[in-house]
Specification:
Blueprint (H helix, E strand, L loop, with lengths): L10 H9 L4 E10 L3 E9 L5 E9 L1 E8 L5 E9 L4 E5 L2 E5 L4 H13 L1 E13 L8 E12 L11 E6 H9 L6 H14 L5
Parallel strand pairs: 4-9
Antiparallel strand pairs: 1-2, 2-3, 4-7, 5-6, 5-10, 8-9
Helix pairs in contact: 3-4
Length: 200
C-alpha cells in the first residue's frame, strides 16, 4: 500500500525542504526479523555531515484503531496487559492489518474479534505515523456505527477485558492519564475536538 504525504505546501515550504540537508544511508544490515517486524542497523551520515548509526524498525502491518459508537453515544474499550511496558492498558479496539490488504477489512475483523461487534457504517477519521524517529509504522483510525453484537473471536494470544462506557468518560480517561496508548489518545482526542467532549 502506498502512503502519500498529505500536506498543503507553499513555494516557501518547498524551498525550505530542499535546503534542509537529509540523512544519507551508507549501508544497511538486517539485525533482526520476524513475521511482524524487521530491525535494520544503518550506517549513516547525519544532516550536519557527521557519520553515525541509526536503528530503524520496519512494521509489516498497518496499525488499525476503531472507535465504536452506539446509538446512545457510548463506546467500548479493551483492557489487556502490554508486554513491552509490563503494565495493564485500556485502549480502543485495535490491531494490525497487512499492508497489501484493504485497511477497512482489517478494521472490521479487529472489531469483531476483540469486541464481538459488526458495524454498518464506517468512517476513516485520521491517518498518522506512530513514532517517526524510530519506525515507519503507520496508523489509521475509524469510527464505527450501526452496531450489532456477533460475539468475540479472540486470537490465542489475547486475554481481554471489555468496558462499555459513555464516549465522554473514555475521553476523560485520556485527560486524567488512565489511557496512554497512542492510537487511543489520538482517536479519542480527535472525537473530543470534532464533536465536543460528549461526542455530539
Amino acid at each position: 500500500m502506498k502512503w502519500e504525504k498529505k500536506l498543503n505546501t507553499t513555494d516557501e515550504t518547498l524551498a525550505m525542504e530542499e535546503d534542509n540537508a537529509q540523512w544519507k544511508r551508507l549501508s544497511r544490515h538486517e539485525a533482526y526479523d520476524n513475521p511482524w517486524i524487521t530491525v535494520h542497523h544503518d550506517e549513516v551520515v547525519n544532516p550536519n555531515g557527521g557519520h553515525g548509526i541509526y536503528g530503524n524498525v520496519h512494521f509489516k502491518n498497518l496499525a488499525i484503531g476503531i472507535i465504536p459508537v452506539d446509538e446512545n453515544g457510548w463506546t467500548w474499550l479493551v483492557g489487556q496487559h502490554r508486554y513491552p511496558l509490563d503494565y495493564y492498558s485500556w485502549e480502543i479496539p485495535e490491531g494490525g492489518g497487512l499492508l497489501e490488504r484493504d485497511p477497512l477489512d482489517s478494521a472490521k475483523r479487529e472489531l469483531r474479534e476483540e469486541v464481538g461487534l459488526n458495524a454498518e457504517h464506517w468512517k476513516k477519521i485520521i491517518e498518522f505515523e506512530t513514532s517517526n524517529s524510530v519506525t515507519d509504522e503507520r496508523a489509521i483510525i475509524y469510527v464505527a456505527e450501526g452496531l450489532s453484537n456477533v460475539g468475540q473471536d479472540l486470537d490465542e494470544t489475547e486475554k481481554l477485558d471489555i468496558m462499555h462506557l459513555p464516549l465522554e468518560d473514555a475521553i476523560g480517561m485520556v485527560d486524567n492519564g488512565e489511557i496512554t496508548d497512542s492510537l487511543s489518545v489520538v482517536g479519542l482526542m480527535w472525537m473530543a475536538r470534532k464533536y465536543g467532549k460528549h461526542g455530539e
